[in-house]
Write a structure and sequence with these properties.
0% strand; flat; 2 helices; single chain; mainly alpha; 78 residues
Length: 78
Amino acid sequence: MRIFGLLGLVLALVIVGLLAKKQLATTAAPALSVVPGAASPAPGEAPANARAQVQQVQTQVNQALDAAAQARKMPDDN
């Protein structure tokens, strides 16, 4: 009976490994995509290159995190 448990575990690891390999293969050459929830720029103000787009996304994420942190501040109960 232990052999069936071991075979099941090995089979599960093989399946997870194949899925991980497939996932990594699709992300190895990522294309520029739109980040969900991020406001897309108007056609006239599109970033000139990928670095500018990355910086814009980082700025938006930082602003969203700061806004979330401000909303969560609660008074002390001293």
